[in-house]
Amino acid sequence: MKFRDRDFLITNERIIFRVYGYCHPDNASICDVEYAPSDIYKSDDIRAIRGKNQYFKFYFDGGLKFIQENYPQYQVFYRPLNAKLVGLTYNQVSEVRKPEKKLQTILASYPKDILVSKTQELIDFITQHSTLKSKDFGVFGSILHDFYHVEFSDIDLIIYGRKELEILREILREFYKKKYFDLRNEFNPPDNAVYKKNWRYTNYSLEDYIRDNARKQIYAIIDSKDIGRKIKIEFEPVKKWNEIENEYNKIDKIIPEGWIKATARITDSKDAFYIQSIYEIEIEEIILGPQIDDIKRIVNYLEEFRGQAQNDEKILVEGHLEKIITKNEEFHQITLSYASSYHEQNLKRLE
């Protein structure tokens, strides 16, 4: 079996897991649990309902707690951290859903409703106005799992490949300028719904979030007259198979060493848009934390902080300092993740 970020794995209980990133043990995948059927999980959060109360979506650490308390067998041992993380061994997987295959099925079929039709039209429009092909895309979210609602659901798409992502960002920039396909950047100007977010980050402002996301180009809105509402569009970057390097067997140990706040210059941002995002850096100043000189990179697992900065740009970072021990070297990295002090973490571009 071979999986990558944003592939979806289903268990016998019909719990839906998303493969998370690209660093996995042999014969297992680290995952984020995304949905559970209503016969085993319910939520009072009205945002969580999928389908006709068929499934509920997890938010924040709800999925982690659900697995730890009810299905602890859906954790795998992660040797570098000497800990168990949410995930599945391959013999626990009863079904696999691949976003690229689902999209090809949609494109080859007669649209059964207007949301599917809009998805087809959007892919057709992009491929007609660029060198991108339909095979460069996938679909995830409620459309992948067939519990979307025409009147409420978003269109969640994947773009595969580094080069393909840059082509897409450039063509979307042009679409936004010329207002093709009734398509606009969700964050430039920001949609009113953005200001209604329950913003929890303490060191990263909503204004910085809006500024940074506008530049990424991958968040869009269609003002659809056909449906009579705004449809949010997301283009999630995922690596091509030949771009993936699994570091799991190279890393012997990851040792937590506390909290750090620093400024740095980006030296390599080619993997900044992915989960996990990797920013190669040169530290300029350590504001808080150990004064060490071998911090090589930032490793980010949070969607808010992917694609934040490009080569030669200066950033401010606040997160967890970790010592990395490999077979060939030792160095430090700064990690942003779903861990303690979640909302104190920060990665922002400095003007």
Descriptive tags:
five-stranded mixed beta sheet; alpha+beta; Beta Polymerase, domain 2; 6 helices
Could you describe the 3D structure shown?
The chain has 351 residues and is α+β, with helices and mostly antiparallel strands. The chain has three domains: 8-97, no CATH class; 99-241, 2-Layer Sandwich (Beta Polymerase, domain 2); 247-349, no CATH class. 19% of the residues lie in helices and 36% in strands. The chain is built from six helices and 19 strands. The protein has helices at 62-70, 99-107, 114-128, 141-145, 162-178, 206-216, and strands at residues 8-10, 16-19, 28-37, 49-50, 55-57, 75-78, 83-89, 95-97, 137-140, 155-160, 183-185, 219-224, 229-238, 251-271, 277-288, 295-300, 314-326, 330-336, 346-349. A hairpin with a 4-residue loop joins strand 12 (219-224) and strand 13. The chain starts with 7 loop residues before the first strand and ends with a strand. The mean pLDDT is 94.
